Amino acid sequence: MENKLDIKGYALVFSSYVMWGLLTFYWKQLTMLLPFEVLSTRIIFSFITMGLVLVWKKNRLFLSYLTEQKKRSILLITSLLIMANWVIYIYAVSSDQIVQASLGYYINPLISILLGLLLLKEKITRLQTIAVGFALAGVMYMTFGYGDFPWIAIAVAMSFGFYGYYKKKENLDTLNSLFVEMMMGLPLAIIYMTWLNSNGGSHFVSVSIWVTFLMCLSGIVSIVPLLCFTEGAKRIPLSSVGFLQYIAPTLMLLIGVLVYDEPFTGEQLFSFILIWIGLSLYTFSLIRTKPRMIIKTNEEVGQGKVIETLADTK
User: Fold this and answer.
1) How many domains does the chain have?
2) For residue 1, is it within any domain?
3) Residue 275 falls inside a structural domain
4) What is the distance between the alpha carbons of residues 269 and 271, in angstroms, rounded to a whole number?
5) 41 is in which domain, residue-wise?
6) Confidence grade of residue 292 (pLDDT, cut at 50, 70, 90)
7) What pLDDT sits at residue 65?
8) Checking CA distances to 290, which of 43, 82, 163, 267 falls within 20 to 30 Å?
9) Residue 2 domain-assigned?
10) Can you list the pairs that 193-196 forms with residues at least 24 positions away whose Cβ atoms lie under 8 Å?
11) How far is CA 209 from each of CA 35, 58, 203, 215, 219, rounded to the nearest angstrom?
12) DSSP-assigned letters across all residues of 218-229
């Protein structure tokens, strides 16, 4: 059964990454807002949306996360990491640095590999080691050869890499843990929005009805792709999920260069080529993995063990 082509699974995962990539257009519509205002709005409406989803699913697993001190402490860390990842990405879009943000999400899977190797003592094959080497060479070339340190890309990759590491290490359910993370960020978001409004700096209702409407949608645009991914990833092999995840940063790159006319120099192209070679080699190594290993890993995806290292909760 595991080898049967699951069209619905592929369609769900494919659509989730397409949505994450195309959401660049959505965030670009909010560039008149301060990044922390967009972040705060996203936290508030994501908390509300995920709360409704969990009520609908009659899922109360998050209660155990709140009562267990260890998981509560881990979720405080992951809450800070995901908020940092979101606000950096929002800043990148608003400051016309979508290309660099896309680079970060290309690098992220390889950061996860390194964290697994160094912190979780996972084993990687020789081909995967070569793949990581190509990707690191691309980042190093952009940093030293081009002379422009890609801090946005590194920050995006590192924040989400460590986010995935903690979620995998503690085997935390995707929706319930994200709900608790938003709950932890909720007081800060409310305080910031209250302060901003009292100082006349809030744009929530002062710009246009359209902007207000888009801000209210931030919870839905955050949760819908994640739900599609979570359901789809249970149905298809991890190697396929790993290959499809590059759809989102590729769309970001194309949108940044072709739609918003962001510069894309020869040096950047060479760096991206090195990273693409690394990603191709790594994906090829997954495809070569024995079927029994793919099936085993796919079961882990269904249990939520590695979803956070693959899902782009941008």
Assistant:
1) 1
2) no
3) yes
4) 5
5) 7-310
6) very low
7) 92
8) 163
9) no
10) 193/37, 193/40, 193/41, 193/44, 196/34, 196/37
11) 19, 34, 11, 10, 17
12) HHHHHHHHHHHH
